[in-house]
């Protein structure tokens, strides 16, 4: 990642560009580099901000999607940001949904890709063979349609994370919180425009999850990415960016 991580007032984030603000929310195991090609595409016309969600810093007894939503609220107030477009992958999408239900006045529009919040085929209760590099490699490859997207650097990062006992406990706590926090009954409250950009071959949050989101979110559109798994902005960034650009053009012209 070529962007400097800014640290101030207890927040860590990356920032680039000027204009309408896009806030990119990473997933549970997501690296900031997952968004690199999105930043490159949009930084010349938009103000792009990626807060680092404090999954490894918050007190474990309060760790959950609601705690991350409260953190996002504090961050946006600190940065004096309003009417932002939230773009969330996996857990990041779930945080965006929880935040939008509570603070819709802060959000101009929402983009979800592989979002949890209804169902996800995640880790279950543990990493039974986390000491095995090949096992972790297989788990990371499961995220994508094309296993080659799981680069050695990506697998190395995940392997290091899940073999840090403190971090793996937090990851499992966070995953369980996401599974418990089903949002089906709350989605009708979200009346702002929502774009769903979904991998047709997503095995973590399968296509029927996207269809249910589309049905429950009253002002949503659904865009499919063929031959794509759980992270379209990584696996097919040009298609993801084209859908995002078209959506932004439509909602910002209103």
TrEMBL record:
The keyword Hydrolase applies. GO terms for molecular function: hydrolase activity. Gene3D superfamilies: alpha/beta hydrolase. Residues 22-241 form the AB hydrolase-1 domain. Keywords: Hydrolase. This is Alpha/beta hydrolase. It comes from Pedobacter agri.
């Amino acid at each position: 990642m070529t962007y400097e991580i800014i640290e101030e007032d207890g927040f860590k984030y990356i920032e680039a560009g000027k204009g309408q603000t896009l806030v990119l929310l990473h997933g549970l195991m997501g690296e900031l580099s997952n968004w690199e090609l999105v930043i490159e595409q949009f930084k010349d016309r938009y103000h792009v901000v990626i807060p680092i969600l404090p999954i490894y810093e918050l007190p474990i007894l309060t760790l959950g999607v609601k705690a991350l939503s409260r953190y996002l609220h504090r961050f946006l107030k600190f940065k004096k940001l309003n009417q932002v477009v939230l773009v969330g992958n996996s857990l990041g999408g779930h945080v965006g949904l929880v935040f939008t239900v509570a603070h819709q006045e802060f959000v101009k529009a929402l983009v979800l890709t592989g979002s949890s919040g209804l169902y996800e085929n995640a880790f279950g209760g543990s990493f039974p063979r986390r000491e095995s590099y090949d096992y972790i490699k297989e788990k990371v490859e499961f995220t994508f349609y094309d296993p080659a997207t799981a680069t050695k650097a990506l697998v190395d990062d995940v392997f290091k994370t899940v073999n840090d006992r403190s971090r793996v406990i937090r990851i499992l706590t966070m995953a369980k919180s996401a599974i418990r926090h089903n949002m089906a009954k709350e989605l009708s409250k979200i009346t702002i425009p929502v774009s769903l950009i979904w991998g047709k071959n997503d095995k973590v949050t399968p296509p029927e999850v996207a269809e249910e989101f589309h049905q429950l979110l009253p002002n949503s559109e659904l865009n499919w990415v063929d031959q794509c798994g759980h992270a379209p902005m990584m696996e097919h960034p040009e298609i993801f960016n084209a859908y995002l650009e078209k959506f932004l053009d439509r909602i910002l012209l209103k």
